[in-house]
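Record type: monomer structure entry
Structure origin: computed from sequence
Chain ID: A
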Amino acid sequence: MSTLWQNIQSKMLRSGNRINLLIGINVFIFLIVNIPAVFEKLFFQHDILSAYAQDYLQLPSYLPKLLTRFWTPITYMFMHAGIFHILFNMLWLYWMGQIFEEYLGDKRTIGLYLLGGLTGALFFVLSYNAFPLFTNTDAVIGSTVVGASASVMAIIIATATLLPNYSISLMFIGSVKLKWIAVFYIIIDFLGVAGPNAGGEIAHLGGALFGFIYVKQLQRGHDWIGAISNIFKSRSKLKVVAKNSDKNSNSLPRQEEIDRILDKISKSGYDSLSKQEKEVLFRASKDNEG
């Protein structure tokens, strides 16, 4: 058991993989909420724990209640309504997140997840307090939304916007380009905004819109998430002057240089890189393998 726990800790905290960290947080919260709830149901035949979790961790659309649950725009995106809900969200997060990080690195993943979820929360609350379908039926008073779907949609659409012709293999379907997966999910979510899960579908569309706009801005040279992370990045006051003129040095590339090259790939593609830039990426990848 200790070895299993050490492996989990290594995957989540020491590997540097942001996707593993996000999946680990979601699974941990799901288990910590639902395992006690199952025992409570078996032995005491009531659902007090589940009721409290829904009341205090899910995102309400009713503004007076939201003011007293101001933390729920964050907590809702790490909660799930059932085993299949979290299963499919985490699978899509893993598949698309790996592609996203392969081309843009991992420094943007958590920011995209959080901002996509917050945008989905904003869309949900605004829609339920603005559209007559919800306000005239008092649906706004008791409606909540839960799940990582808006955050995952932000990553799906961002990846599809960045690499529209990238193909993945789907069971029973075969090779499908990311742009068609994005179109399919957008249509499904839009058709569902007047259905029984309207709040969830609206939140999905909000996350998808953020993912699309973010990558479009990134391709224009405006990295919103990178700019936010740079605010909190500590800068060393030490300056090192190197006099080595050997251009064929095998020294490892700096992270700033790697990030610049990844940004160039996102804007112009891999073929736009110079021979020196490709060599930098090659040395960095060999270092990561070690």
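Annotation 1: Residues 245 and 251 are 12 Å apart (CA to CA).
Annotation 2: Strands lie at 59-60, 144-145, 167-170, 174-177.
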